[in-house]
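Case 218 in the screening queue. Each case pairs one protein sequence with one candidate compound; here the compound is uracil. For every case the pipeline is the same: read the inputs, emit a complex structure as tokens, and attach any notable structural observations.

Predict complex for case 218.
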Amino acid sequence: MDSRSARPWLKALGITIWQRREPGAADHAPESRADANGWGRLKEEVQSCVRCGLHAGRTQTVFGIGPRNATWCFVGEAPGAEEDRRGEPFVGRAGQLLDAMLRALGLDRGQVFIANVLKCRPPGNRDPQPSEVAACLPYLRTQIATVRPRVVVALGRFAAQSLLATDQPLGRLRGPLHDYEGIPVVVTYHPAYLLRRPADKAAAWVDLKRAREIVTNE
Ligand code: URA
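Case 218 output:
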């Protein structure tokens, strides 16, 4: 008797049937009110943050967007002008490319969690300073700990170096699979870089397929 046809018998005998859990089923368990409250508090904390000087120049903070139980998490560097204006990450030209990358993976923006290392826009889109990253990174760490995605895709050098606490160049970080608090991290090019160097899109696609394999095979 195979296990499927045995089920009614086992049930009738009052024997609990343990079923193999589909990958990620627990990740999509309904969220408790406590989780939702914690997330709301984190949002408020970010909104009123004055931990570094960037608060003085912001229109608004850019917390991040997406389901709190998303399977995929994409991490960028910092909001640009358009993101600062709209309060949402990756809504400018780089964001359009990110959306296209998501579509290529069969995903859309509503299904993934997207956030940046910095929640406020650096003036003139300059590079984040180490003190700004140190002040802001705990927010991202809490976000990732809450979402517990099956994979994190680090978009560009700043995201990768900040999450992985390394100063290795992007060229060394791309390729190997990394670990962040038990979550696999795939490093790829930042969409803004790919807009300048479209020839590297093929390599980015290899990275994204790697991330998809992780999600599918886990
Ligand atoms: N670049 C980033 O790293 N993040 C954004 O939100 C937009 C552009």
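Case 218 observations:
- Strands lie at 72-76, 113-116, 151-155, 178-180, 183-188.
- The pocket of uracil is lined by residues 76-80, 83, 89-90, 92, 94-95, 116, 192 (CB under 6 Å).
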